[in-house]
């Protein structure tokens, strides 16, 4: 409540009791309480009137509905993303280049043109 703690509130009440006196203090507190309640009701009425006139309630409901639709869509997409379909090329395997097929233009390890570095004997030098 306005950053006022119990000690501060007691100090304010003590000062009010001294300044106003014990006879007028209850009357003033009662009228102050009524005024605060009336102010609170008036602000709530004003807030409701503004929301109704601007259509804020309708916009909020529309946004909530859109949010629910998006969440449902995302849940459905997560299901389909977590189980992706495999594309096949008519065989029982996933489409893509066959690892057993080699391009004829590329020299392989069995080609006489290319010597594999690992298969050449290494010179160990002097023993």
Q: What does the secondary structure layout of this molecule look like, with pairings?
A:
Elements: H1 6-20, H2 25-54, H3 56-82
How would you explain this protein's 3D organization?
This protein is mainly α. It is built from 3 helices and no strands. It has helices at 6-20, 25-54, 56-82. The chain is elongated and about 75 Å long.
Jot down its keywords:
mainly alpha; single chain; 0% strand; 3 helices; elongated; 127 residues
Q: Averaged pLDDT, please?
A: 75
Order of helices and strands: HHH
Shape: elongated
Number of strands: 0
Radius of gyration: 42 Å
Helix content: 55-70%
Weakly predicted, low-confidence segments: none
Secondary-structure class? mainly alpha
**Biggest sheet architecture:** none
Beta-strand fraction estimate: under 5%
Total number of helical segments? 3
Cα end-to-end separation:
93 Å
